[in-house]
Design goal:
Mean pLDDT: 95
Radius of gyration: 17 Å
Largest sheet: 8 strands, mixed
Number of helices: 8
Helix content: 25-40%
Distance between the termini: 31 Å
Length: 221
């Protein structure tokens, strides 16, 4: 199992929050929890899991994010690829990483998911490997129900699946993932929802208040 981390987004919500506070915007992946950048927490948790190789996709703010990797001696631990065009949706960022080898199994995660534990990653890997049809299955962090799912509503990264399965759905799309996941489940792709290890794994970091909440929870425990 390899991993693809997307870190190519516009960072627009966090930029707007900083501007409303009359502060110079900081990319959310550079914000720190326990003196370590959000992106590095995400990578470290994946390195500690059963994942073998990691590819990270850069687009917007590519120089800033590359510097995070360089400063933390991550360039020998991850493979960096770049979107040819920055202004593409999440689906095309995934395509950028998959084009080299779609015929493999992958963990797909976002760079701003520092609370996803290696334990939960390994659970997703295990349920995919144990599925009756691994090449037609998505093992995903459950947001509501767990076990075999009949809906993809509200779901997104992280998840594990066969690269070719996802590639065939994404190659003609330029969109966020949820509509594509809904189409997949409608077409008979099996979804297995893995229970979160703790409530922090279910929190997203899109805006500054969400970052502060996660930072407080992590640093107090």
């Amino acid at each position: 199992m390899d991993a693809i981390i997307t870190a190519a987004g516009r960072n627009s919500r966090m930029i707007n929050d900083f501007r409303q506070m009359n502060k110079t915007p900081v990319h959310k992946l550079k914000l720190k929890i326990k003196e370590k950048e959000i992106l590095i927490h995400t990578i470290d948790n994946i390195i500690e899991s059963d994942v073998e190789n990691i590819t990270i996709v850069l687009g917007h703010f590519r120089d800033e994010i590359y510097k995070i990797l360089k400063d933390n001696q991550m360039l020998d631990k991850v493979n960096v690829v770049y979107n040819e065009n920055n202004d593409v949706g999440l689906s095309q960022s995934i395509i950028t990483a998959l084009e080299e080898n779609p015929d493999n199994y992958y963990l797909f995660a976002a760079g701003d998911q520092p609370t996803i534990s290696s334990k939960t990653i390994n659970e997703m890997i295990k349920h995919l490997e144990d599925a009756p049809q691994p090449d037609n299955t998505i093992s995903i962090l459950a947001r509501r129900k767990t076990g075999w799912l009949d809906s993809a509503e509200g779901l997104g990264m992280p998840f594990c699946t066969y690269g070719r399965l996802l590639y065939d759905y994404l190659k003609e799309e330029d969109d966020n993932l949820n509509p594509i996941l809904r189409k997949m489940i409608k077409n008979g792709v099996e979804f297995y929802g893995v229970e979160a290890n703790n409530k922090l794994e279910l929190l997203n970091i899109n805006c500054y208040d969400e970052y502060l909440e996660i930072k407080r929870e992590v640093e107090e425990n």
